[in-house]
Structures are given as structure tokens and as C-alpha cells.
Design a protein that fits this description.
Elements: E1 2-7, E2 11-14, H1 34-42, E3 52-55, E4 59-63, E5 67-71, E6 76-79, E7 84-87, E8 96-100, E9 134-135, E10 157-161, H2 172-177, E11 181-183, E12 191-195, E13 211-212, E14 217-219, E15 227-229, E16 236-237, E17 241-245, H3 247-255, E18 261-262, E19 264-267, H4 269-279
Parallel strand pairs: 10-19
Antiparallel strand pairs: 1-4, 1-9, 2-3, 3-8, 4-7, 5-6, 5-8, 10-17, 11-12, 11-18, 12-15, 13-16, 14-15, 14-17
Length: 283
């Protein structure tokens, strides 16, 4: 077991999410940066999607019994009862991850262990972690995958235009890709607001309609700035979608700290599929 002695900012139990439940109004959720959680888990021999801690600030963890911990830099700590580890916060990434050997043992709710804050389910009592919380180790099956730290590649975030281009002026994609955008500090796991300009609407554009949504969709409220939907996104939305972040770059986008800038580059959907296949991911 581990006890949380100190936590600065937010922290949650998160895992690989709840796939296949969008029709029930439940977003996939899970780790904001799934590949970073996987890196921490793999360092301990856990399955990559085992439940761990997603943190947005510094933490101090104390062992209650002998435990092994790892972070997304593949650093591993073997702690004896009463020993502690100080996890600093350098702001280099939007979120960081800590894994416990065997995974974190919290109840499965709707097929996942991760915290869905909006619904107050999953994780530890459906809430953020706080001082005094104790997390027990699960007995997830061990693997033999070699540990590697999670590294974000450089370069612009790649997007695929559409599907609602009829709602925007012809130069909408040019506006998205020709400048840097600031990630607003008003963002959260539901969506990331982009500051710096507005994407022009087409005169006489069709009215908004309710359609299914996915993580990475770039919506534009009327007269507002773009919003990139996050892992806890609403399962339906009424604002038109001007573009979608390529799945291969979604973790990289979510790793950018709030307050920093991001640039986009447009690619075709066929190119996005090739990149995803090369990365070993699935649609």
C-alpha cells in the first residue's frame, strides 16, 4: 500500500479508460496521456493500462509495507515500510504519472477503474486524491516488456480537416495552421481552450446540430475560440467540428503544459491512418 502524505494540485486514479460506452453517454476517459501511464506501468512489468496516479503537481508518497513505484520517466523506487518518495513538479508536461507494482486496486465501475469526475464515479470514491488517502496494490499479471521513458516527439500537432467544413469560411484550416495558439489555463480534462484568434465562420452557415464527439475534435463555439475535446469530453456536441487531431498525436498534444503554445499542420486522413499504423496504435 501507499499513503499520500502530500499532494499539490489535482491528482486522480486513472487507467486505460472505458472504451465502447459512448452510446451510453460515458466517455472513454482514462489517462490524459495514455502512453505516459503505459511507460510508468511497463517499468514495473504491469500491463500498460493498469490503474495508476495522474498528477498535476508535486506529491509525497509513503510506503505502508514493501512496495515498488515507477514514473513515466521509467524511474523505479523500491520502498520499505515507512519510506517515502518525493515527486517534484517541473511543469515540463501537463500531467505526470506514477504506477504501483501490480496496479492500483480500486473498484471497476462500468468496466474501468479511472476517475470520471463529472459523474463522480471510478478511482477513489469518484474524486481527486488528497492527503491521508491509502491506495492498495492490485495483482495485475506481470509482463516482460522492457521499460522505456515516455518521450514526446517534436514538431507541430497534425490535424485532419472536417467533418463540418461547411460551417466555416474557406480559409478556416489556414487560420488554424498559420499561427501559434496558446493553451488556456482555463482548460481541463474535458477540453482544452485555444487562445489567440478566432476561426472564421461561413456567412449563412448551417445551424448547430447534435452529433457524436470524440477526443481530439476541434470545436468552435459561435464568436469564440477553438476548443479541443479531451478524454472526458461530452459524448455529443452541438458545435461544428473544423478538424480533428490525428490519433497518433493526441497524447503529444495533451502533454503540452497549459500556458504554452502549440502549432498545427494539416494532413489527409489516409496519412493519419498510416502514421497510426506505424506507431502500433489502432483507430
Amino acid at each position: 500500500m501507499i499513503e499520500i502524505e502530500r499532494v499539490v494540485g489535482l491528482a486522480f486514479v486513472q487507467d486505460g479508460g472505458r472504451p465502447g460506452r459512448l452510446r451510453e453517454g460515458v466517455p472513454r476517459g482514462g489517462a490524459l496521456i495514455a502512453s505516459a501511464l503505459s511507460a510508468a506501468n511497463r517499468a514495473l512489468g504491469n500491463p500498460g493500462d493498469a490503474a495508476g496516479i495522474e498528477r498535476y503537481g508535486a506529491m509525497t508518497l509513503v510506503a505502508r509495507g514493501d512496495v515498488m513505484l515507477a514514473d513515466d520517466d521509467a524511474r523505479v523506487w523500491t520502498l520499505r515500510d515507512g519510506e517515502r518518495v518525493e515527486l517534484a513538479w517541473d511543469g515540463a508536461r501537463r500531467a505526470r504519472f506514477v504506477a504501483l507494482r501490480g496496479g492500483i486496486d480500486v473498484p471497476r465501475v462500468l468496466g474501468g477503474r479511472g476517475t470520471l469526475v463529472a459523474a463522480r464515479i471510478g478511482g477513489l470514491e469518484g474524486r481527486s486524491l488528497r492527503r491521508g488517502d491509502v491506495l492498495r496494490a492490485e495483482s495485475e499479471p506481470m509482463t516482460n516488456v522492457r521499460a522505456r521513458p515516455w518521450l514526446a516527439h517534436e514538431g507541430p500537432i497534425r490535424i485532419v480537416a472536417g467533418p463540418d467544413l461547411a460551417a466555416y469560411a474557406p480559409r478556416a484550416i489556414d487560420v488554424l495552421t498559420s499561427r501559434a495558439w496558446r493553451l488556456s489555463t482555463r482548460s481541463d480534462r474535458t477540453g482544452t481552450r485555444l487562445e489567440g484568434a478566432t476561426v472564421p465562420w461561413r456567412e449563412g452557415a448551417p445551424s448547430a446540430r447534435t452529433t457524436p464527439m470524440i477526443a481530439g475534435a476541434i470545436e468552435l463555439p459561435p464568436g469564440g475560440e477553438p476548443i479541443v475535446l479531451g478524454v472526458d469530453h461530452p459524448t455529443t456536441g452541438g458545435y461544428p467540428v473544423v478538424a480533428v487531431i490525428a490519433r497518433v498525436d493526441l497524447d503529444r498534444f495533451h502533454a503540452i503544459p497549459l500556458g504554452r503554445d502549440v502549432r498545427f499542420a494539416a494532413i489527409t486522413i489516409d496519412h493519419a491512418r498510416v502514421l497510426l499504423g506505424q506507431s502500433g496504435g489502432t483507430t
